[in-house]
Amino acid sequence: MPDHTYRILMNGVTGRMGYHQHLLRSVLAIRDEGGIALDDGSRIQVEPVLVGRNADKLARIADQHGIADFSTDLDRLLAEDDAQIYFDTQVTGERKKAILKAIAAGKHIYTEKPVASSVAEGVELVQAAEARGIVNGVVHDKIFLPGLRKLKRLVDADFFGRILSVRGEFGYWVFEGDVLPAQRPSWNYRAEDGGGVVLDMFCHWNYVLENLFGPVRSVIAKAVTHIPERWDENGRRYDATADDAAYAIFELEGGVIAQVNSSWAVRVERKELVEFQVDGTHGSAVAGLFGCRVQPRVRTPRPTWNPDEPTTEDFRAQWDEVPDNAAFGNGFRTQWEQFLLDVHHGRPHRYDFAAGVRGLRLADAGLTSSAEGRRVELPAGGTA
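The structure corresponding to this sequence follows.
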């Protein structure tokens, strides 16, 4: 059977995430390893076309990785190129207008999150995609991580019994940029450019909680800017106008309570940069990017509170590591493969624009809660 080649317009892959995770470890990895096998014996092949603002950077990447086509003219590519798919990993503020152009050109759309800068913009994208009848998807990389896939396996096996609570800790120290260069781009810390940990991370937490434990029904949050001044990529000082930390309580459908701290101003004393502890009546688990440890009810110790004597128990040694039992590939690539299969078969992608809007709605509710000092409820289902 003949193979099926899909040209992909990839906009913004000169950036850190777009280059490493989406271009190198996903699309080029699929290309270089022979594509995606189909049941009829044929394969899906991919052919990236690079799009961006810096022609020199695009040329270097294209030459280094054997990519034939690149351009700084998105409008021309959308009008003339026979690419079937448009991928967007630009800064958030540039995303909506580019995606709308790609939808109008009839391209299937895959995009980084947040899907847009606001709920209203996200809903506009949902409606445009539905009217055009194109397959659309939003990156949900965290649920494809090995640690969270193990955690999902435990949930599906009813390991926890009745789930009571989820505790999430995410973050690390992002250098201010004066003594050492920052690990994140400076726009992340300017609200006017679409920055902020709430807009960035609450979109992640929404789909993680939604897909593992249930939809979020309310939020109480406090967003803060701990580091008020930073230095950009050129060593220039600037005011940090976006939040760099957020502390939130999410109430999920069914009564599960999730507490999640997100911070770019915290030093790490965990095994991994993100960890979720899930406690249930029959057992508990702690999952990170790769690992997952469990403590079932029958192995739960009986600690005794005694402030007069040092603790002698090694609490972390009382947990058991969940084995891999399977080969876990790169999470970004795994979803790319699912999206390409959905495009090929003409079926909806599960993690679509509507899912992205639910993430935006949670971020909006979190910021409202923080600004007004109150609990904010979220609508049940959909994007309305």
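The chain is about 30% helix and 25% strand.
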